[in-house]
Amino acid sequence: MNEATGSIRSWQRLAGKTRSFLATFVPVALLSALIWFYADRISSKTGVEKLMLRVTAARNSDLLVQLVEPNPGENRVELEVTFSGPSGELELLRREIVGGRFAPEYVVKKDSLAPLVLDTREAVTSAMPRRFAAIAVAEASPAEIKVAVDKMITVPLPVRVLRGSIQTTDPAVTPATVNVELPRSAFESVRADERVVTVDIEERLRNRPEDQVIDEKFPIPQQTLGGHPIATEPDHVRVQLQIQKQYVTKEFKFARVQVRGPVDLLNAYDVSITLPNQQIAVVFRGPIDQIESLKPEDIVPYIILDEEDRTRTSTPFPREVRFSLPERARNVIVEEQPHVDFQLVEKEAAEAAIPVPAR
User: Fold this and answer.
1) Which residues of 297-336 are buried (b: 16+ CB within 10 A; e: fewer)?
2) How many CB atoms lie within 10 A of CB 83?
3) pLDDT above 60 for 99
4) For 289-334, how does the pLDDT look when each residue is reduced to its tens digit (9 = 90+)?
5) What is the pLDDT of residue 109?
6) Which tens digits make up the pLDDT trace of 224-250?
């Protein structure tokens, strides 16, 4: 009985000591953990992260914002940013950046004639969410970027219809002008006579019968003005015209024909050329504008000799006449190639046949 009573008292004393220990240790442990956690949160550290900074215009603005340096023509630049702050906050920020939930943006609100020089550290700082108020942007590289700020304008420009080599009446275009949206700087960089919108319809007209009347809608193709893509309103125009006669003929007559060939052959022989009726007549065919531009002095008729022609000394021999034309007449052809007769005469024999006056 006494032993049982002593055992119970021993367990009671042990339980009391345990409760006393726990009552003291647990609060101390919890407090220590909280102090450690808080100290870790407030300890200042640095971290380097790569992120993309986007420069843009205010919403519903008529401004056009583009980078000049670096990445000309773009609106995003990669930065290497050094952040400083509590390590826990830095880790949260890193996760936001990696997950694409923090993408800083700098909004331009005013027009500027000269490129803006932006401090990237300030740009990132201004974009930091409030929940990261404890984090500072210590440094950013590149430290500065240049941004061009332009104003988008809408101007009416005339439509010019291109028909290439297809001959037509003057086209009637409806509407004669279209509204074009483009940057102001691009518009001002173009000469007044080049401020037009072009519609090339040559391929659509090719192989159409002569005298056909065209009354069709043609899309305005993508094009640039001042090096910048433009948008038009409307994006189609109506074109009315009539296809005219595309080719005409014209006759020319020549009293001389040039001789071309190996130099040693021409040095050894004289070339006698017989022209029918003392001249050759040739008919050229081609586009109206190219035929009308041709003049007799622009055309050189000639024949070509080769070494095999050394035997053409006994009788006249026929040869095709060719024609040298200027570049502007590149589409002109000869309807029927003329021929002339030629004969070679050795120069020594020719000189011997010349009578010498008697003394």
Assistant:
1) eebebebebeeebeebeeeeeebebbbebeeebeebebee
2) 23
3) yes
4) 889 899 999 999 999 999 999 888 888 999 999 999 999 998 899 9
5) 80
6) 998 889 989 999 999 999 988 778 899
Q: Are the CB atoms for 123 and 53 separated by under 8 Å?
A: yes
Residue with tokens 């974009």: 127
> What is the spatial distance between Cα 274 and Cα 257, in angstroms, rounded to a whole number?
10
8 A C-beta contact, residue 305 and residue 274: no
Alpha-carbon distances, residue 63 vs 7, 52, 66, 190 (angstroms): 90, 21, 10, 20
Q: Which residues contact 153 (CB under 8 A, 6 or more apart)?
A: 62, 181, 182, 183, 184, 187
- Laid out side by side, the sheet with 44-57 consists of 105-108, 44-57, 76-86, 136-141
Residue 174 pLDDT level (bands cut at 50, 70, 90): very high
Is the Cβ–Cβ distance between 178 and 195 less than 8 Å?
no
Is a pLDDT exceeding 70 seen at residue 90?
A: yes
Q: What are phi and psi of 142, to 5 degrees?
A: -65, 150
Please give the model's pTM, rounded to 2 decimal places.
Answer: 0.50
Identify the pLDDT of residue 248: 84
What letter does residue 184 receive in the DSSP assignment?
H
Q: Which residue has the tokens 């008919």?
A: 283
Q: Is 32 helix (H, G, I), strand (E, B) or coil?
A: helix
Indicate the burial class of 96 (C-beta count within 10 angstroms; 0-12, 13-18, 19 or more). Answer: middle
Average pLDDT over residues 245-273: 91
Spatial separation of the C-alpha atoms in residues 214 and 13, rounded to whole Å: 114
Angle in degrees, 0-180, between the axes of helices 2-42 and 87-98, rounded to the nearest 10 = 60
Angle at 323 between CA 322 and CA 324, to 5 degrees: 135
Rounded Cα distance, 78 and 67, in Å: 12
> Residue 329 corresponds to which tokens in the numbers above?
């007449």
For residue 125, the one-letter residue type is T
Residue given tokens 């193709």 in the structure block? 221
pLDDT of residue 23: 60
Task: Give the Cα separation of 288 and 204 in Å (integer).
Answer: 20
